[in-house]
Amino acid sequence: MFGVTRQILREHLVEGELIAGTEIAIRIDHTLTQDATGTLAYLQFEALGLDHVRNELALSYVDHNMLQTGFENADDHRFLQSAAAKFGVHYSRPGNGICHQVHLERFAAPGKTLLGSDSHTPTAGGMGVLAIGAGGLDVAMAMAGEPFTMTMPQVVAVRLIGGLGQWVSAKDIILELLRREGVRGGRGRIFEYTGSGVEALSVPQRATITNMGAELGATTSIFPSDGQTLRYLKAQGPELSWRAIAAGTDAAYDAEIVIDLDALGPLVAGPHSPDNVITVEQVAGTLVEQVAIGSCTNSSYHDLAIAAKILEGRTVHPNVSLVITPGSRQAFLMAEREGIIETFLRAGARILESACGPCIGMGQAPASSSASLRSFNRNFEGRSGTPDARVYLASPEVCAASALAGRISDPRDLAIPYPVIPLIPAEYLIDDTQVIANPPNPAAEIVRGPNIAPLPIFTALPDRLSGPLLLKLGDDVSTDAIMPAGAKVLPLRSNIPALAAFAFATVDPTFADRAKKQPGSFIVAGSNYGQGSSREHAAIVLRYLGVRVVIAKSFARIHAANLVNFGILPLTFTDPVDYDHLTPSDLLDMRDVAAQLDAGGPVRLTNAVGGRVLELRHDLSARQREILRVGGLLNHARQGVLAAV
């Protein structure tokens, strides 16, 4: 018998064997895009020359670029709606909710595969979906009916035993795993949750855990499909499909982690990383000026309900700005019907629309040098929109208690009984009117505004790569650092020439100008380069600016794939000490590039400053080497690799 992961992979396997470390290709059932990544993904799909999507179900959500201070975001939304109408894609309108929350509520189905152009796509793993985040070009290929190729991860069983105590939540389970494994602990791994402690966790609780599995760097995280899954789907409507998927009693895993839920208390992730986890007691008393409850991690109906119960009849501390983001229109409507929204308003909270908002720096930036406590999934430095803000992550329970006190507080110290709220209501409010289900219409016109620029055209990999080392970076560089988000930059996601000006803007404001003047350049980084968001823009803008090679101690999975997709060569140090010998302004030279890559041995690079020869390595498959050779995945697809209709 197999675990849940391998059962689904076996059902969808197109090429390869389920042996960790080898390349496999799987069939993708559902695809998901959001508006910050979707515009580029649909431009890429259009470039493939197809008149309709070929996968089972494609969904286009609008939830990121909601702050319309200019025409750009509205133009992108119009482009996405018209592309959905042409290609036969379901379109979730602005205001319908955050893609992961809406997908979990209305479209996820146990046993399906889902590929999404957002790193938090594994949220659907809370319902037994094998859900993987990827770059938009990989998603465009999946919409074209092509299998998704990846390195088969190790499957790690996370065995939950015992049960959660009062005031302890699913957020604390994933924070505990982050405390143990760190932001690099999931690289090359899938976390599959097992054990008796799983049985009591509802689908929204499970989804909180699988959502933040992305912060571990995991390929995905998944729970079984069981009675809890059936209960949730029944409450969401009889038309939704359920199937039981459970691990066999003799299922084998590559490793096991045991978490005793009885021993957990409320946890907090301190600045500036989701794995900087401490107990709430260790940070209690820290003054906060902003508290935010929501995001795709903790914005379900139950999250809102329990926060409202804590705030009921009380008033937010006068020094605190409390903002609430219902994750979906469904959660918003239910909260309004049951008086939860009124409770928030009477307590002094501000209600935001159902969108990503503050989580991606799209509004609600904290005051300078202040502390913000959020029920979100990421707290990278500067991501909030305020460079020197200190952002903490915690459960809705800790957030609500802290909003009342004006400082980080342990909800167990509240002088109120623990709220008894059903994890799943008997039925959810169902209203799908804000999702447009489009049949393909090849005659439909795609509407483009002036900010939607043509895709850049990239040339093949030359046989010699020679240029300056433009930038040397440390460990755990996130895609937020490579390509910032926020209200100023996000509206440019469909305009690569304009967007490229902001590459590494928060790290080195001179980078973009220097790169444009010195094509063929190199970047060097430490471990886990490219962690965080799936945004392929962090790769394509570098290629547009002339970067051809990134050398790192190690790469985050999605970003490494994105580099290959846009013709940038990702290499790692054979000897990490060589990292220390490289300095900005070094001139690097690599000859016989294709032959060296194909040889399978060390890739030799000469530093013209001093003449030192470095030996580098790669783990590129033959398919990836061919993609690099022709200049990227889109060029590769245009050369006729798409399967026949």
Q: What does this molecule look like?
A:
With about 650 residues, the protein is an alpha/beta fold. The mean pLDDT is about 95.
Intertermini distance? 35 Å
Number of helices: 23
- Whole-number mean pLDDT: 96
The largest sheet, given as strand count, sense and whether it forms a barrel, is: 7 strands, mixed, barrel
Walk across the major sheet and give the strand order: 21-22-23-24-27-26-25
What's this, in brief?
The chain is of the alpha/beta class and 645 residues long. The chain contains 23 helices and 27 strands. The chain is globular and about 70 Å long.
Blueprint of the fold:
Blueprint: H1 4-12, E1 13-15, E2 23-26, E3 30-34, H2 35-47, E4 57-61, H3 71-87, E5 90-92, H4 99-106, E6 113-116, E7 130-133, H5 136-143, E8 148-151, E9 154-161, H6 170-181, E10 189-194, H7 203-212, E11 220-222, H8 227-236, E12 255-260, E13 267-269, E14 277-279, H9 280-283, E15 290-293, H10 301-311, E16 321-324, H11 329-337, H12 340-347, E17 350-351, E18 371-374, E19 390-393, H13 396-405, E20 435-436, E21 464-472, H14 479-482, H15 486-489, H16 496-499, H17 511-517, E22 521-525, H18 537-544, E23 547-552, H19 557-565, E24 569-573, H20 577-580, E25 587-591, H21 593-599, E26 603-607, E27 613-617, H22 622-630, H23 633-641
Parallel strand pairs: 3-4, 3-6, 4-5, 6-7, 9-10, 9-12, 10-11, 15-16, 15-18, 16-17, 18-19, 21-22, 22-23, 23-24
Antiparallel strand pairs: 1-2, 2-8, 5-20, 13-14, 21-25, 24-27, 25-26, 26-27
Helix pairs in contact: 2-3, 2-5, 6-7, 10-12, 10-13, 18-19
